[in-house]
């Protein structure tokens, strides 16, 4: 996929009124942070920003910010949406060195449910974390973290510290000992066991 480039304009002033005026002019307001420099109020044309957003490669990925003839590497860490129209209304970008490690949350996805004996017997997958915080080079942030459920039985769990991660990527201390997911007995199984115990007692 081609590199995402955001052509930005520097806007003057901050606050709700200024941001509303920017949106009314067909732009999406944002703020550029990081690298030991003060925040800069910026904006991007709404169609261009929506196009970048819809690629699925904007949030949490390294993108190029272009202002006139200047370019720099940034990461989009937050986008706010209108509660009714779901249109983007504000975004935050952070300056980064393309090869420096950054702290960022990455979505967790699960595979091989059919290869989990616990799930095949009717167990339930309890997901504790839908995202895991990692440290990764800005130019090598994984799109997702995949958890393989092969062989997991009821009672088994997956810790963030045990996840298989790409080279140079590691889970932060904040999530290192956290449980990502576990296989538990479903309510139906619990009811069946209770009924069996009751029958045995009688």
Strand content: 35-45%
Q: Helix count?
A: 4
Instruction: Count up the domains.
Output: 2
Count of distinct strands: 13
- Dominant shape: elongated
Characteristic key phrases:
four-stranded mixed β-sheet, 4 helices, RNA Polymerase Alpha Subunit, Chain A, domain 2, about 200 residues, alpha+beta, Ribosomal Protein L25, Chain P
Topology:
Layout: E1 5-10, H1 16-24, E2 27-33, E3 40-45, H2 46-54, E4 62-67, E5 70-81, E6 88-95, E7 101-111, H3 117-120, E8 124-127, E9 131-137, E10 145-148, E11 157-159, E12 170-171, E13 179-184, H4 187-201
Parallel strand pairs: 1-4, 2-6, 7-10
Antiparallel strand pairs: 1-3, 2-3, 4-5, 5-6, 7-9, 8-13, 9-12, 11-13
Explain how this protein is built:
There is one protein chain. The protein has 202 residues and is α+β, with helices and mostly antiparallel strands. It folds into 2 domains: 5-96, Beta Barrel (Ribosomal Protein L25, Chain P), CATH 2.40.240; 102-192, Ribosomal protein L25, C-terminal domain (RNA Polymerase Alpha Subunit, Chain A, domain 2, Beta Complex). Helices cover 18% and strands 41% of the residues. It has helices at residues 16-24, 46-54, 117-120, 187-201, and strands spanning 5-10, 27-33, 40-45, 62-67, 70-81, 88-95, 101-111, 124-127, 131-137, 145-148, 157-159, 170-171, 179-184. The radius of gyration is 23 Å and the shape is elongated.
